[in-house]
Amino acid sequence: MKILLGEDDMEISAMLKNFLMTEKYVVIVVSDGESACEKFFSDEFNLVLLDLMLPKRNGMEVMRKIRESSTVPIIIISAKDTDSDKTLGLGLGADDYITKPFSVTEVLARIKANIRRTTQYAAGASMRQPVLKKGALTMDLNAHSVKKDGKEIELTAKEFGALVLSKLAIYLCIFMGSKYMRSSFVIDFIFADFSYSGKRR
């Protein structure tokens, strides 16, 4: 895991880098906002730790630039501890906000939580089944639901399974104009045996 740390206080940046390296993180340190932007867009990072009071380009501007093209987790570390500062930072796209002084164990816990949340969301999105659409008909394979014109068609688990496994979704799309969407059509084909071509045999 690679972390970009934007911090102009060399004592703080050294402390964080040394501690995070013991936790097997790769930490790239920059001391101003311009360098933070340049480094971020020239490499790949799993998370950004960002001080707000950076020279040349402040942390808010750096965060705005990153958010134009990336959803990487960003944790603000700042001496600014008012509610308005926190609200502004989170509103501009920060995922977390830590006020100085802080403990390195708290920073580590926040880093782990944000990376875990991001990777889990990504894994969930990749595992999510597609939503099939054809005209007025929508089949959500993840929610196990079928809708026509936005209105859900009531199907038993067996009927829905038959639609998916026997590729009856194709037939529903073809015959979606029929008012017999459930009983006349689905029940007729539930126990039918289909070849891979979709034709009866």
Q: If you consult CATH, what is the topology of the largest domain?
A: Rossmann fold
Number of domains: 2
Strand content is 15-25%
Which structural class fits the helix and strand makeup? alpha/beta
Order the strands across the largest sheet as they lie in space. 2-1-3-4-5
CATH class of the largest domain: Alpha Beta
Overall pLDDT, averaged?
Answer: 77
CATH superfamily label of the largest domain: Response regulator
Could you tell me how far the N terminus lies from the C terminus, measured between alpha carbons in angstroms? 54 Å
Rg, nearest Å: 26 Å
The main β sheet shows up as: 5 strands, parallel
Q: Counting H and I runs of at least 4 residues, what is the number of helices?
A: 8
User: Could you state the order of secondary-structure elements as H and E?
Assistant: EHEHEHEHEHEEEEHHH
Estimate the global geometry from the Cα principal axes: elongated
Q: Considering DSSP H and I runs of 4 or more, what fraction of the residues is helical?
A: 40-55%
Can you name the CATH architecture of the largest domain?
A: 3-Layer(aba) Sandwich
Q: What ranges have pLDDT less than 50 throughout 5 or more consecutive residues?
A: 174-201
Please count the beta strands (DSSP E, at least 2 residues each).
9
Short key terms for the protein model shown above:
single chain, 201 residues, alpha/beta, Rossmann fold, 2 domains, 19% strand, disordered C terminus
Q: Secondary-structure blueprint of this entry?
A:
Layout: E1 2-6, H1 10-22, E2 26-30, H2 33-42, E3 47-50, H3 59-67, E4 74-78, H4 83-91, E5 96-99, H5 104-127, E6 131-134, E7 137-140, E8 145-148, E9 151-153, H6 157-165, H7 168-174, H8 183-189
Parallel strand pairs: 1-2, 1-3, 3-4, 4-5
Antiparallel strand pairs: 6-7, 7-8, 8-9
Helix pairs in contact: 2-3
